[in-house]
Write a structure and sequence with these properties.
Distance between the termini: 84 Å
Number of helices: 9
Structural class: alpha+beta
Number of strands: 13
Order of helices and strands: EEEEEHEEHHEEHHEHEEHHEH
Strand content: 15-25%
CATH topology of the largest domain: Homing Intron 3 (I-Ppo) Encoded Endonuclease, Chain A
Helix content: 25-40%
Shape: elongated
CATH architecture of the largest domain: Alpha-Beta Complex
Radius of gyration: 27 Å
Number of domains: 3
């Protein structure tokens, strides 16, 4: 370094990098007599990447938080960082090392994939949504529940799955039977049924998931390919014959 006495050589050392809970690398060192922790990607960006707009965050272009090569980093604001991650999910490098188990919440069938990207391709679910489930930012994605394979023997937690499933809104057509008139109605969605019949859609969901028998004077069943038979059986039980679809 340059001093008033001329150029002086200072011997440096390679700092040991550690990984925090967010999967970011950081280093620990003393500065002006104080212990300091600094994120490696911010050190690299501040040292080598111009920031004329004074942007506050640093984005990893390949979404791999451990790849702090200067060519992989860019300054950005928070909204850009969030949109980028939601669009691209996590990197191929990260996902290859993290196999995932997938539970079909309709059939409770379990599947295993070598990566999030493979699961997304096979199931038709956005990789960013899968990542959000694994990180606890959402409960399900595309009708599936995801959990990382951490090396332990995987067992389906039936109680947890039932709780998740009961909190999901039914997607698809719905039949409703008026218990007073025995008339049958079909709706495109749970919310449409709630609006048309004046029934809280959350109460409709409790009927569809089997937690209660009726809601608002109506019985409900999802149009799952066998709904017509279920409707006929229910009408027979209550002695109705009307059918208004």
């Amino acid at each position: 370094m340059q001093t008033k006495h001329g150029l002086q050589l200072v011997q440096g050392r390679v700092l040991k990098q550690q990984c925090n809970r967010g999967n970011y690398l950081f280093v620990n060192f003393r500065l002006n007599g104080k212990q300091v922790n600094r994120l490696v990607h911010r050190i690299v960006a501040e040292a080598f990447i111009p920031n004329p707009d004074n942007l506050p965050q640093v984005n990893h272009k390949d979404c791999n938080r451990k790849n702090n090569n200067v060519l992989n980093l860019e300054w950005c604001d928070n909204s850009y960082n969030v949109r980028y991650r939601e669009k691209y999910g996590v990197s191929q490098t990260e996902t290859l090392g993290h196999p995932v188990y997938v539970i079909n919440l309709k059939t409770q069938e379990s599947l295993r994939f070598e990566s999030q990207s493979e699961a997304g391709r096979e199931l038709g679910v956005r990789q960013g949504d899968i990542s959000a489930v694994l990180r606890g930012r959402r409960k399900t994605a595309g009708g599936y529940w995801f959990v990382e394979d951490n090396g332990d023997d995987f067992k389906i937690d039936k109680n947890k799955l039932c709780k998740i499933k009961s909190g999901m809104m039914f997607r698809g057509g719905i039949y409703a039977i008026s218990l007073k008139t025995q008339e049958v109605y079909r709706f495109q969605s749970q919310r449409e049924a709630g609006r048309s019949l004046g029934v809280d859609y959350r109460n409709i969901n409790t009927v569809l998931t089997g937690k209660r028998k009726t809601a608002g004077g109506y019985w409900f069943v999802g149009d799952n390919g066998h709904a017509v038979e279920a409707v006929k059986s229910k009408l027979h039980d209550i002695g109705g014959t009307g059918l208004r679809l």
